[in-house]
Amino acid sequence: MIAVLADTPVLETDRLILRAPRFEDYAVFEPFFLSRRSEFIGAWPDPTPGKAWRSFCHVAGMWALKGVGSFVYCDRQSGAPLGHSGPWVPPEWPENEIGWTVWSEAAEGKGYAFEAASAARAYAYDTLGWTTAVSYIDPDNARSIALAERLGCRVDASANAPDSGLGKTPLVYRHPAPEAVA
To answer: How much is the pTM?
Structure first.
């Protein structure tokens, strides 16, 4: 029997469905994690299937233990999982984060991460009542920096950043206030 995060909300956009992680999503997540594409989420320099599984379980576990977490966003027509995005609130994080990944290279550059992150941020502001949010981004992650700026985020040099575990301090991108994105 496979457990389901039954109380997890489902969000919909024009092209995407954002929902709880499911066991079958792991088949798409693992190749992403094992590829060089995961270098900015702590997988490198030594990604392994075991680390991939634990990382994926963090996504589901956040929902189970905190009642909030990243949604897996899926193509609305095919149902194919494309990545994850959403509120991220580990106990050691200085602030509430909106995070994102794109699992497949074929899904890059199509605006899916922007659409998913926008919906996730709206959920964090409108449903969770967040008044601010940040995104912690590796300074070498040009694609995530571009996405953060497209979302209206700006570097907040006065904000604290968590230890990324990657040997460098992430940039802190501050999201616009809720009233600025409504």
So the answer is: 0.95
Q: How far apart are the first and last CA of the chain?
A: 41
The pair of three-digit structure tokens given for residue 9, joined into one six-digit string: 């909300």
- CA contacts within 13 A on the Cβ side of 131: 0
Contact 73, 20 (CB under 8 A): no
Q: Return the closest-CA partner of residue 5 out of 104, 86, 122.
A: 86
- Half-sphere exposure (Cβ direction) of 112: Cα atoms closer than 13 Å: 27
Question: Which is nearest to 98 in space by CA: 150, 54, 137, 52?
Answer: 137
Query: Mind listing the pLDDT tens digit for each residue in 96-116?
Result: 999 999 999 999 999 999 999
CA atoms within 13 A on the CB side of 105: 5
What tokens does 146 get?
Answer: 């571009």
Amino acid in the structure at residue 89: V
Residues in the chain: 182
CB atoms within 10 A of CB 124: 24
Task: Classify 29 as helix, strand or coil.
Answer: helix
Is residue 98 a contact partner of residue 135, using CB atoms and an 8 Å limit? yes
